[in-house]
C-alpha cells in the first residue's frame, strides 16, 4: 500500500469524490437539554404542583365556608370571603399608608434579625468551642429563652428611649435565641476525629475554627436563621400590636378595632407572605453557601 505522500493526483481526486456515509441524526439539542432539566427538577416541579393544588383547595374551602356562613364548632359568620379580601387588597395597593406599614415592618425585621444573626452566630460558635464560655453564658440564656416576646414589651419600653428602638429590640430577642441554640447544637455535633486530624496536620486554632468547625456547623446555623426569622415576625407583630403606631401588625390591630374584617384578613395574609419570602431568602442563601448539600 502506498503512503499518503506517494499518492498521485488521480488517487486524491478519487478519494475526494468518494461518497461520505451520512451520520445518524441524533435528537435535537434543545429537546435533550429540556429532558435533562426535567429529570433534574422533577421533584421540585411535583412539589410545586402539589402546593398550587393545596392552595386552590384552601381557597375553595374558605369561599364555601364564608359564603354559606357555616357554623360548625367554629363560626364563619363574620369571616370575610376571599372576594372581599381581594377588594380590600386592591384598595390597599393604591393606599400609600398600607405600603408604608409594610415597609416599616420589613425595616424593623431587617435590623432586628441582622443584629440577632451578628450576635447569635459568633456567640454560639464560641460557646461550642470553649467550655468556660458555655458554662458562663448558657444558664442566663436558658432562663431568658422561654420568656415570650409579648412579655418583653413593658421592659423594652422602659429600656429604650423611642418606640422604634423598643420594637427592634423585641424583634432581636425573638430571633436571637433560636439562632444561638441551633448554632450551639451544630458545634456539639462536629466530629472530633476531624478536629484531631486537623491538629495532626499542624493546623492552628484559627484554621481549625475556620476550616472544620464553621463548615460543619453551617447547616444548623441556617436552620437557626430560618427558625429565627419566623419567630422574629411573631415577635414583631406582637410588639406592633401593643406599642406600635405603624407597621403591618398595627394595621391588623387597627382593622380589628374599627371592625374592618377584610382588612384583618389582609393583614394576616400580608404577614404570612412576608414571612414566607424572608424564609425563602435565607434558604436561598444557604443553598449558595453550602452547594455540597444539593442533591
TrEMBL record:
GO terms for cellular component: plasma membrane. It is a multi-pass membrane protein. Residues 102-282 form the ABC transmembrane type-1 domain. One of its GO terms (biological process) is alkanesulfonate transmembrane transport. InterPro entries: MetI-like, MetI-like_sf. The chain crosses the membrane at residues 47-65, 109-130, 136-160, 167-185, 221-243, 264-285. PROSITE patterns: ABC_TM1 (PS50928). Keywords: Cell membrane, Membrane, Transmembrane, Transmembrane helix, Transport. It is found in: Cell membrane. PANTHER family: ABC TRANSPORTER PERMEASE PROTEIN MJ0413-RELATED, ALKANE SULFONATE ABC TRANSPORTER-RELATED, MEMBRANE SUBUNIT. Probably part of an ABC transporter complex. Probably responsible for the translocation of the substrate across the membrane. This is NitT/TauT family transport system permease protein.
Amino acid at each position: 500500500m502506498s503512503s499518503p505522500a506517494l499518492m498521485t493526483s488521480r488517487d486524491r481526486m478519487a478519494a475526494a469524490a468518494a461518497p461520505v456515509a451520512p451520520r445518524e441524526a441524533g435528537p435535537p439539542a434543545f429537546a435533550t437539554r429540556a429532558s435533562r432539566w426535567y429529570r433534574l427538577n422533577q421533584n421540585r416541579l411535583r412539589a410545586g404542583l402539589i402546593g398550587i393544588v393545596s392552595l386552590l383547595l384552601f381557597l375553595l374551602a374558605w369561599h364555601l365556608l364564608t359564603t354559606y356562613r357555616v357554623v360548625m364548632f367554629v363560626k364563619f359568620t363574620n369571616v370575610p370571603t376571599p372576594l372581599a379580601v381581594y377588594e380590600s387588597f386592591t384598595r390597599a395597593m393604591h393606599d400609600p399608608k398600607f405600603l408604608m406599614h409594610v415597609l416599616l415592618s420589613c425595616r424593623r425585621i431587617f435590623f432586628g434579625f441582622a443584629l440577632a444573626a451578628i450576635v447569635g452566630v459568633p456567640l454560639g460558635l464560641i460557646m461550642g468551642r470553649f467550655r468556660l464560655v458555655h458554662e458562663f453564658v448558657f444558664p442566663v440564656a436558658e432562663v431568658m429563652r422561654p420568656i415570650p416576646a409579648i412579655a418583653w414589651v413593658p421592659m423594652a419600653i422602659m429600656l429604650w428611649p423611642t418606640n422604634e428602638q423598643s420594637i427592634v429590640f423585641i424583634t432581636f430577642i425573638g430571633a436571637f435565641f433560636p439562632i444561638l441554640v441551633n448554632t450551639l447544637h451544630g458545634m456539639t455535633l462536629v466530629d472530633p476525629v476531624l478536629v484531631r486530624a486537623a491538629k495532626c496536620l499542624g493546623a492552628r486554632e484559627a484554621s481549625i475554627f475556620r476550616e472544620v468547625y464553621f463548615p460543619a456547623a453551617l447547616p444548623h446555623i441556617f436552620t437557626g436563621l430560618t427558625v429565627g426569622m419566623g419567630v422574629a415576625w411573631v415577635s414583631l407583630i406582637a410588639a406592633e400590636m401593643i406599642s406600635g403606631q405603624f407597621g403591618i401588625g398595627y394595621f391588623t390591630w387597627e382593622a380589628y378595632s374599627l371592625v374592618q374584617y377584610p382588612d384583618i384578613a389582609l393583614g394576616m395574609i400580608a404577614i404570612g407572605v412576608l414571612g414566607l419570602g424572608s424564609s425563602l431568602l435565607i434558604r436561598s442563601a444557604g443553598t449558595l453557601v453550602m452547594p455540597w448539600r444539593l442533591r
